[in-house]
Specification:
- The chain has 417 residues and is mainly alpha-helical.
- It has one domain: MFS general substrate transporter like domains (Growth Hormone, Chain: A, Up-down Bundle).
- The protein has 22 helices and no strands.
- α4 runs antiparallel to α6.
- The two termini are 23 Å apart.
């Protein structure tokens, strides 16, 4: 039975990442549905979508910068205060997007401002995941690190459901023109209320036992990133590639699938959002299974099995999603997101274990967010380009390649218990 104090910690770990990922997914959904014509107008719809996806990728470039910045303070000052700061930056950046003028109003200034705020989103998220994972696993009792490590991972499906669910409700209540004119701004405005909740929860926390002990023993690093590069470069390198598959799976099954399904296969937008909302429950199931399985075996073993499954899922994409059937697409998305749970859920316990306490925030954050560049930043853009050139079969091979990269990264390190 989990103690009451630990339930509060796990909730704080989950709610913060849920809010951060809500902010991030709101942008992903808007990028697939409306940002193309509003901020990157073009006579070619495919070019509009590509430009919109490119702005989506900017945050992934900012994430490693945020991981170094917030990791520095997280390893020197503490996990709690750093998590509060990252949440504030992410929330303010998202909230301000709601007030942006469009290209028709101010021309090229509109996409520049959008990209600037997108960078702010990524900077904040760069410091979020690592700190939330440490908050959970550094408080975990013996034998529970795998399950505790899934607490921040559950923020992903919760944030996705909130973001896409709100877009779906807005879409049902507004016509297409109203949605383009002002309806898309509502989810960005709503982020302010979520940030207030997140801050209220996190300000009540105490510091983790591991960091408190390290600080009392004067074992904190003056420049954590320098220590990481000098003595933990191989762990960071392998950890980065091990996390590639989860990003590729998620952004192909959500951002790319939504854009391709509605603009190329001409599925109804609300219908597609609906099947994604149900399919995301399989991600939650995969995370739950992976946490229990990790504690019974090891996080690394679950990640290796999940990486092999990612390769298989990629090979199925052309046949299942390429059929054009909404039912078959739903089955494929559900399968892909369940497998994502297997390569995402164990990361909360596995990545921090690669690094000592004094550089753990920096190391886990840098590896996770560098993987975001490789697996997530360009995934919708590359997938869209591949689909235009050779169909969804090529996109599936791209996904399989991501699974292979993760498997290689995992095999490059000694198995963990």
């Amino acid at each position: 039975m989990i103690e009451r104090a630990h339930r509060r910690i796990l909730f704080a770990s989950m709610v913060g990442t849920a809010i951060e990922f809500y902010d991030f997914y709101v942008y992903a959904t808007a990028a697939a549905l409306v940002f193309g014509p509003l901020f990157f107008p073009s006579h070619d719809p495919a070019l509009q979508l590509l430009s919109s996806y490119a702005s989506f990728g900017i945050a992934f470039i900012a994430r490693p910068v945020g991981s170094v910045l917030f990791g520095h303070f997280g390893d020197r000052v503490g996990r709690k205060s750093t998590l509060v700061a990252s949440l504030m930056l992410m929330g303010v950046s998202t909230f301000l997007i709601a007030f942006l003028p469009t290209h028709d109003m101010v021309g090229w200034v509109a996409p520049v401002l959008l990209c600037l705020l997108r960078f702010g989103q990524g900077l904040g998220l760069g410091g979020e995941w690592g700190g939330a994972a440490l908050l959970a696993v550094e408080n975990a009792p013996p034998g529970w690190k795998g399950r505790y490590g899934t607490a921040p991972q559950f923020g992903a499906p919760v944030g996705f459901i909130a973001a896409n669910g709100l877009f779906l409700l807005i879409g049902l209540g507004l016509d297409q023109q109203q949605f383009l004119d002002w309806g898309w701004r509502i989810p960005f405005l709503f982020s302010a209320a979520l940030v207030i909740i997140g801050l209220w929860v996190r300000l009540k926390l105490t510091e983790t036992p591991d960091f408190t002990a390290a600080k009392a023993a004067h074992e904190t690093e003056r420049v954590p990133i320098a220590e990481l590069v000098r003595h933990h470069g191989w762990a960071s390198f392998c950890g980065t590639f091990a996390a590639v598959a989860c990003f590729a799976l998620f952004y192909i099954a959500t951002a790319f699938a939504l854009g391709h399904g509605t603009s190329v296969q001409h599925h109804d937008r609300n219908a597609f959002l609906s099947i994604q909302l149900v399919a995301i429950l399989f991600l939650a199931a995969g995370i739950l299974v992976s946490g229990i399985w990790s504690d019974k075996t090891s996080p690394g073993r679950v990640l290796r099995i999940g990486s092999v499954a990612t390769i298989v899922v990629g090979l199925l994409m052309g046949v299942m999603m390429g059929s054009g059937s909404l039912a078959e697409t739903f089955v494929f998305l559900s399968l892909a997101l369940f497998v994502m749970g297997l390569v995402y859920g164990p990361l909360g316990a596995w990545l921090p274990a690669l690094f000592p306490t004094r550089v753990r925030y920096t190391g886990a954050s840098v590896a996770f967010n560098a993987a975001g560049i490789i697996g997530g930043a360009m995934a919708p853009v590359v997938a869209q380009w591949l689909a235009d050139k050779g169909g969804l079969g090529l996109v599936g091979l791209y996904l399989s390649a991501a699974g292979l990269l993760s498997l290689i990264g995992l095999l490059g390190l000694k198995p963990q218990r």
